[in-house]
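Teaching assistant here, posting this on the class forum so everyone can see the example we discussed in section. The complex has two components, and the goal was to see what a joint structure prediction looks like when all of them are supplied at once.
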Amino acid sequence: MTVRVLDGEGFVQMIQAGHARLQAMAEGVNALNVFPVPDGDTGTNMALSLAQGVASLQQLQHPRLAGAAQALADGLLMGARGNSGVILSQLFRGFAKVIEAEESLLTADLFARALQAGVDTAYQAVARPVEGTILTVARAAAQVGVQAAREQLPLPLWMKKVRQAAAAALANTPEQLPVLKQAGVVDSGGQGLVYILEGFERWLQGMPVTAETSSAGLPLSRAGESEVHTAADNAGQNALVSGQALGNPAAQARVELSSWPELGGVQHDSPDSHFGYCTEVLLRLPTATRPVAALRQALAALGDSLVVVESGEWIKAHVHTDHPGQALEAALQYGELTQVKVENMREQRRRLQARQQRAGELDNQLGARIHVEAAQAGNRPGFAVTAQGATAGQPLAVVAVVAGAGLAEAFRSLGAFLVDGGQTMNPSTADIAAAVQATGSPEVLLLPNHKNVVAAAEQVQQLVPGQRVYVVPATHVAAGLAALTAFLPERSAADNAARMTAACQSVRTGAVVRAARDGVFDGQTLRTGQFMGFAGDRLVCVEDQRRLAAAGVIQVLAASAAELVTVFYSDDVPPAEAAALAEVVQALGLALEVHYGGQPVYDYIFSVE
Amino acid sequence: MPKTIHTELGTVTIAEDVIATVAGLAAMDCYGLVGMASRKQVKDSLSELLGRENLGRGVEVRIQGEDVQVDLYIVVSYGTNIYEVAQNVRDKVRYVLNETVGVAVDRVNIYVQGVRVVNERQ
């Protein structure tokens, strides 16, 4: 069946298909939202705006084309939410004007002219059009649409060309708007428009509309060279690397909200929180009321770990409570609930404990072999056995910045004082200084363990005039661990600093990370969920399977002289999979140590000596 | 009175004009806003006469101690959802001032002073 023209009924159904597609993908669009205000709501706003348009279409009894287009424009105007919603309403306002004047069936030719008129109208409603946004995408689509209409194509084929043009323009938006390029994303409003056009196209072709996979390749974000380096640092992790620990797409979107404090940073597995449910709400306030203080007070009575932040007409509140219902009711008194999330923290804790138990069992199984190998590999202390903590007041102490339960245990067992590296957050100079003071030692060696922490670490000396601080330039947690094994408390601080610096330079580090979204790095195309293998800061392989990426990294790291491979795996990796890396390592004739690291973001961390 | 931010290492003072200019630029990026309405005819016509763009045009900034208020006098495009455009302008201005100047604005008051009807068919 080839659709050549659309009548009013067909038009209504096509718009509904566009809306359905957008709605299905709204979370993904939210996650891209960095411009103009990174509040992670573009997809929701566009879908809600279009929902109003669809609602006014559904009120029509026997829709004629002109009436339908006008009803859509009216509904969109009333329902417009957010910048992209307003722009969408303008696109369809111009669209309706042309269709109203023609009073006929919708052909590719009329569609093209209406689309062009929509773009013209939309461009007139702004003082300074910003390129690299939904406007640019719409203009490119209309331009190609007008050209393609001359070829007398049937509507589905015409729409395919339009959608492709929109997708191509979308892929180019990071080149036009630097803020997108920095975040390694395409424009969110433009992406929303592409989804709407995709919905149109699928409906015209008689395909299912809301299926998750896209028919033709989705536009890739064109992250430039610069992102290759930031991929390994924290800013990059926020933007590019899936916070698997954060879980759902909403949480991912939350990471983008640089204007909000990171609510996800609240520890859910903290043993002292005895409340059962992590409850989060996003409130839209009716007018210029500012009930933050009142809301905070109301929620504080219900639980702990309370965070209430305000931005414009929005309030986001987070509380741990045994009565999520009461918390929601309390919030409801101050505004509309826009998003609600309730998680059972006891369940999360049980899962975490089960996982750690499994990891512990595996460590025991491997233990015998590991220690034999460790002995052969040299006089490396087996930190899996010594569980002594650091004692304050020694003449010389080591302070390390570490994230992840397993890694923290490793550092602690080697006698280091710890500063929590947090999930996505680097500790401040003051945090590190506090840990340095807590050692009570006149001389302190500092392991930043991340290149973003080095600068903060170097400032610490100024805050602790009574102590002498040596910063060992370990920029990776695996390098920091190697440095710590070289630490000899009976030697002088300066001697140790030199030894440890040499030790951390002697290891090569690597990591495996899951890609949070599509992108291009170093000329390699990535899709969401693929695994990136890094050797140092360099991307060396991209695989669909985590173990293949891990094997790829090990092979690169082991290419030159190597004896021992140490692997730390995260909560997301089944211990058996980590243990199976032994085959790869043995094939290379090397010794292997496998430990539970529990680190955030990175699925695997490697060091090769 | 300029906005002062006290830190341990010294004081940062930001003139009202700076806040007004940043707010004006941020607002101009907003979709649906087609211009700023002049509040100070003499100053603005003088700027025009001098061939300079007065970026703080249509923006008034009032600072009293910690309290920062911004008034924006805007012209919007006919056929847009004016309430929503005003909300978007307010969010954008708050966000940009907070991000780039480090000023937390207490209130952003929007005065829609005009609506421009753009000709629909060229």
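For the discussion questions: Chain B has a mean pLDDT of 83. The longest helix of chain B spans residues 82-101. Think about how each of these relates to the inputs above.
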